[in-house]
Amino acid sequence: MARRLLAALVAALTLTAFLTAPARAAGGAVFPKDIISTDFPDPDVFEQNGTWYAYSTNSGLGTVPVATAPSPDGPWTIRGDAMPDGPSSAWAQLGRTWAPDVYPNPDGTYTLTYAAWHKETGRQCIGVATATSPLGPFTPVGTTPLICPLDQGGAIDPNTFVAKDGTRYLVWKNEGNAVGKPSTLWLTRTTNDGQTLVGGNTALLTSNGIIEAPDLVQRDSRYVLFFSSSGYNNCNYQTSYATATSLTGPWTTAFRPLMTTDTFDGHVCGPGGANFVGDKVFVHGWVDGARHLFEADLGWANDLPIVRGSRVRIEGESGQLNHCVVRSNAAGASDGKVVAYIDYPDSWVEESMYAPVAGDYTLHIGYANGSRGTASHGLVVNGNSQGTVSYPATGWDNWHESSVPVVLKAGWNTVRLTKGRLYTEVDYLEMQ
Asked: Is 168's pLDDT higher than 60?
């Protein structure tokens, strides 16, 4: 890398003088808000008539804890147990009532679909209850489970999905990992009140590992199936998604998870059990031995999800490049390619990056700097200078990360790195 010379010093000084401070100082990434600071896992959330309702897996708060708030940000108030008499005594017993799903019916009633402890086998099965109020009390329906494939480990994690044509379905998981078999996320059509199954089951995704907590969303151009994976009981739990243009698939899993402990820089431990509601996502995370409920802003970039505070990576070589080149076979670099020779007054790298809402974010840049000192790039966002990015010397192909706060508008933003002091190669950009 001896090719790195100081021939562009005058141009760099001129450019540095041009890059003035932004109109206001950016504060950096905004992480999910802890909105219910007690054990409230596997959340299900909806809004009706200006009130937000949230339900969780059984805990010390009851069989189906319920909370309300005037807005998704809160303040949230625990309102008690939505199913105080427990699941159906005909087939279930207290103790493992998991992942409740409450849906408002067209006739003004409410259907609660839940997983409960099948007392004859010790497996989990899915049952149904109804109420005339979202606060309950919910009364179990029938004397047998709605879904109970005991030979496949039972069933958990029901999720109501209503397609844009009005057809109602239940998405659920057979708990194969409990009996040494694969686990599948299934789609089953139901009646409009969710109390009766109609037709057979359609397999969506199958895994030999843990795959659970489905939440299905229909966008204009595709269906998005969210799910959790890894063990729920530690910080390795995470949320991913798959997409398809048809409910019957084929489904393509995203290249990277949507939310992990690392993508939140440790601000949420084990983000899972996620529920996506409009422009918000609700997810639980571990805090002092309990799973608190967190809320974050959600955006859709070409009908793909972006969660504020969770890192989204774009490879540097995928952007628009001017008077610089892509270097392949870059040892240790993300995807093995980097942008090199950003050496000239008119050199720049530009990426389009999406922000769910306007405000403060953090831009992370993977880089290697083989110069004999701290290098820099000018940072231009939507045509306006937001200062510079500094890169301490690392040596070539020794990849590190530099981070700077930025201010973004809602939706798509153009982020450009321009020639600054000395020389740096760019591996990737991550917006958080």
From this structure: yes
